[in-house]
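User: Here's a protein and a ligand (NDP). What would the complex look like?
Assistant: Let me lay out the input and then the predicted complex.
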Amino acid sequence: RFVVTGVPTVLPSYVSGGWRRPSDDGTPVRDAVTGHDVARISASGLDLGAALEHGRRTGGPALRELTFHQRGALLKALASHLREHRDELYSLSAHTGATRGDAKFDVDGGIGTLFAYSSLARRELPDDTVCADGPVLPLGKGGTFLGRHLLTPLHGVAVQINAFNFPVWGPLEKFAPAFVAGVPTLVKPASQTAYLTHRLVELIVESGLLPEGALQLVCGGAGDLLDHLTPQDLVSFTGSADTARRLRAHPTVVRHSVRFNAEADSLNLSALGPDATPGTVEFDLYVDSLVTEMTVKAGQKCTAIRRAFVPAELIDDVEQAVAERLAAVPVGNPAHPDVRMGALASLEQREEVRRSLKALRDAGRVVFGDPDHVDVVDADPERGAFCSPVLLRADDPDRAEPHEVEAFGPVSTLMPYRSVEQLVDLAARGQGSLAGSVVTADADFARAVVLGAAPWHGRLLVLDADDAGESTGHGSPLPHLVHGGPGRAGGGQELAGLHGVAHHMQRTSVQASPAVLSAVTGEWVAGAPRREGEHPFRKPLSRLRVGDAVVAGPRTVTSEDIAHFAEFTGDTFYAHTDEQAAAENPLFGGIVAHGYLVVSLAAGLFVSPEPGPVLANYGLENLRFLTPVKPGDSLTVTLTAKRITPRTGADYGEVRWDADVTNAEGESVAKYDVLTLVAKEG
Ligand code: NDP
């Protein structure tokens, strides 16, 4: 038997607090390149109901005790740990048919997603276990009845059912937002490449970083897993549209309204603009991008370009340029340094691709490649799941097949279009896609395509000479942006920064008085009690509390103040300097103080000037000037600690203050948030 270093003969699962072997020998998983056995796989004998319960009873409570910042810090440590072991993951990836470049896409992409979510958790979320979402909404005129949305973690398990093509990125991109939300995960990888996900989870378990129950792994079939779901669990599926349809309709999923997110195959498009003729940067970018998307991971990417639309008059040029580039892509053993495209994941996948190609050939002819044969470097072309890149050309874009049949391999169909309207219609024929791209230097054309195609897409890239240098390319989902598309693409959404976190939480609208709403959310809201006494700028974070306040003033604003400010800053706008012109201003009816003068005077009122725990003022947010300030008006400012966020790993944190500047009549003349950095001690 061929032995792959580091992979046990039978893959154990990590469930209910330990590694468990199946009760039978399972079925073989084969090396995509050599056809030898890599491992055997089975989930027989595993108690999947108990595994889910372990996640709910052990993982969930442990995670919910951590604040968002603590979860973010753990993710960062985990990402660093995995980064140290990535060479091992790259090496194992070769058995899945992946080149080194493909492996980096998968492994580094996954680790990068952990880093991105770690940073989001620590920068965008409070150092708390709940998170208020959106603004405070006044629900009555008197300000005693308010509403706000609150996000709390679901008390279930985020179940992942994953595809074979991203055995590292797939589990990590789903795990990161669930973990930040405080929800434990159970991963069921696709059997074909489960040995790589197994090693990933082994590395995570070995790190000892995560609370027990936060991550479990089931190698083998899903068995009765879904039967044990409860209303607090979630399912996140990636794979074929057929399986998605079946699982979505599972009686337990339906009965409990289980949140079900699907990311399925889609007929992604890329369109070349009519301006991008041969010789332009955009023409070359289009050809590059199409060849990359066809050959990276041997085209086994859910976002790869399947439909390549080009202006009818450019189709011969594009065909020729793409064919020339594809001819220079050596296919073969991904471990060989010359090889640019490896194998498909399995011989079964190759059969599937060949079957799909048969259907596609009813609509188009092959203009590059041979679906049944390929010359390979350093490998046996029959034992390994090798497949030639195949470019088809369908001169009639109205034929159904290219819009319906996905060959999940290095296959794309070139099609002509004659107008932007036709292009937008053709885009919609895919019935919903994950990703699309437009390559053009014509911003009006780009706008027409983006607006026309957006309802059918989760993500759209417009590529031109300006952004090409920094562009992450057509096929790369990004942690901060939506991944997932409507209709055929599964109808789901993953990632998208904090949206992906919120997906694992319940949004509850809480209606209450200001005092109660402050207590519930941990954030001071207008109308809640304040505490005056020692100046809050004298208090380090260890003593500062939400609601601590200072009321300072009054300070009378004189004509001299306004004239001085105008002269000193150079802001001599007529409303501050020209009595007659200002009198005719319909809003002011006379000289008014500069808004920035009001803000500056307020700072002069609330400051506590001696050295102390306040280290810096790093900005203002939500500044509004609400009532004009005239010479003779006197100003009072109330500054209240609104949100306190200690920064993990630093000896200071952020304090957001509510600032309300009022006039002698008690009217607010300016409202804003002051952002400061304050020492934890001292
Ligand atoms: P599948 O939909 O068959 O499998 C995807 C995942 O679902 C695997 O983990 C699989 O497990 C699991 N699964 C299958 N049946 C069930 C079930 N009844 N209950 C619970 N889990 C189940 O897709 P494949 O991986 O076989 O790929 C087939 C096609 O899907 C490809 O040719 C391609 O067209 C598309 N695809 C799309 C991807 C995308 O990212 N959108 C990615 C990969 C494939 P197991 O492996 O153990 O059977």
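Summary: The chain is about 30% helix and 25% strand.
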